[in-house]
Structure formats: structure tokens, C-alpha cells
Amino acid sequence: MYTGKARAYTNIALIKYWGKKDEHLILPMNNSLSxxxxxFYTETTVEFNKSFTxxxxxxxxxxQDQKQTAKITAFLxxxxxxxxxxxxxxVDSRNFVPxxxxxxxxxxxxxxxxGACSAALNLGLTDKELSRLARRGxxxxxxxxxxxxxxxxxxxxxxxxxxxxxxxxxxxxxxxMLFVLVDDGIKDVSxxxxxxxxxxxxxxxxxxxxxxxxxxxxxxxxxxxxxxxxLGEVTEANALRMHGTTLAANPPxxxxxxESLTVMQLVRQARQNGLPCYFTMDAGPNxxxxxxxxxxxxxxxxxxxxxxxxxxxxANAGPGITLLPEEGSEKS
Length: 332
Ligand code: ADP
Ligand code: DP6
Hints:
The chain is built from nine helices and 14 strands. The chain is α+β, with helices and mostly antiparallel strands and 332 residues long.
């Protein structure tokens, strides 16, 4: 048998990935830019074993049903095909992040799975190769290979679509993200289904795409110049535009809950009180607030009037994927 283990952290996009131009290869419509965080992560062990007669997937110790395992099996099939392996595998994963709640468990989950496969099979993949592989599991996972800021280059083919680290002179260490957990239940519309419906039916989608180049340029310049206001403003505007597209989809939908709107309003109020901070949201009702580390305590104190301490989780910039290759040896 061959076993390998990896840990990958979630990332939150400041400029969002929203829409695919190739659903099979997971090639995105647009580049995206993210910050990898240290608070939420996944640890995954993969065992390829000739005695297995099928793939199996355990999440937090619970065997997953066929539907949940399908994505994993498809990913393992790709690994088998790309690296000439014929063995079935058991995937044992632990999410230190709520699953499917818009907190990017798919990013850390699929990045960890790609890393664990590489470790188990001693593939010795470079970060770029790992990013490409993780992308095939879940698009946003390709950015979790890297710590700090990363940009996913959309590319035009399997080979040319991968994430890269953005050189930032460690500025991300001055930043924090505060997660406001208004709901950790499983969401109704997954990011995969939501973006597909939007691309296919939303009359606002063209507007979304036309704004991406300018947003990316602004974000990258803000990182280069360590300009928090510029980065925050473009982060918030980009998220609002992404969520706007869902309202014009058919059938229309939104990831926002009344509590999400309350948090957005409080963020605006905090800014008016002289506390710079900016929100972003993904495919779920929870809100993430970008803030400078020096202002994190004040922001938490401000929000503590409305939310319990369990609902406020802060994260710093996190590291890239960690492979634990010492477990990846042939044992029988
Ligand atoms: P989220 O906001 O949590 O990323 P998504 O709906 O985008 O929500 O993705 C959730 C899906 O990601 C799960 O249904 C599962 O298919 C996959 N996933 C989550 N955690 C893991 C994991 N540890 N290993 C493999 N796949 C995972
Ligand atoms: C809103 O990466 O979960 O979080 O590629 O279909 O697995 P699939 O989608 P996924 O989508 C993430 C969407 C997002 C924005 C982002 O992370 O860029």
C-alpha cells in the first residue's frame, strides 16, 4: 500500500472566481486573487491499496455516501489516469472548517487531497503541478497550494491554468480576516451549481466579466503599494458585483441572509466610525471582513455587541500546502 498525508489551508478570494468556460477541465472565465488563511484547514490521508475493490471517502470519521464520494472518485480516477496507477484508494479527511458553508472547505479539501495523492504516490510534484492537479478537483483549491496572496491565471488549457504566489514583501502578515459566522449549515446552492446557473442565465454576467481586468489591476497595485484602503475597496466592490449576478439568474437566487446584510451594514458603520475594514462573501451567508491586524481587536469589540465570541473567528495569513511525504512509502 501507498499512503500520504497533506494539510492545506482555506483561501478567500478578494477578486472572485465565478464561472467556468470548461466545466470538465475546470477552466475559469476569469483570473482570481486570494489570501490563504491560517484559521481553517483540512488534513487528508490517502491510502492506495491493492486489496481495495472501490474508492471510499471518510470525512471527519464518517463514511460518505455515493453522492459525496463521486467528486472524490472522479478526482482519484484522474490521478490514476495521469500517473498510471491502477489501485483504488481510501481517503480519510478532517475538516477544521465547517463543510459546504461558504467557508471554502472545497478549497482546502481538494488541495489537501491533491497533496496527499502526490505524497502517497511519491509523485514529487512542483507547486505549479500541484496547483493544476488541485484545480481539477475544485477550482479555488488551486490557490490553496500557496501561502499569502495568490493569483489563479485562468489560462486557456489544462496546462496553462494554475495559481501562482504574488510577491508581497510579506505585507499579508499585517492583515487579518474576521469571519462572522451567521450560519454554519450546508448551503442550498453549491458554488459549482450557482456559478453554472449564473453563466448560463444571468443577464448581469457580461457586466461581471467586463469589470475583472480593472479589479485585478487595482488589487495587485494595492498589494504592491501596501495600500489597504485600495485593496479593501476593490475587494468589497468585486464581491458585491459577483453577488449581483445571482439576482439576474433564472431562477434567481442569493447567498445573502438577513444577518449577512446586518454584518455589511455594521462594516459600513465601523468605517464611518474611523475603523477601516471591508467585507467579502462567497457562496454562503457568512461574511468575511478584511482588516489590518492592528485594528482587529477594535473590530471584534465593535461586533461583540451583536455577535457571540463563537461567531467571530479571526484568521491571519496562512501558509501553503504542507506535504507529509515521510508516510509515502511502499509497504507491501
Ligand atoms: P464550501 O463553501 O465549503 O467550499 P462548496 O459547496 O463549494 O462549499 O464545497 C463543499 C464540497 O467540497 C463538499 O460537498 C465536498 O464535495 C467538498 N469537500 C469539502 N471538504 C472536503 C474534504 N475534506 N475532502 C474532499 N472534499 C471536500
Ligand atoms: C464564490 O472552487 O468551490 O468561493 O470549481 O466548481 O469546485 P468549483 O467551485 P469552487 O468555487 C468558489 C467560488 C467562490 C469564489 C472564489 O473562491 O474565488
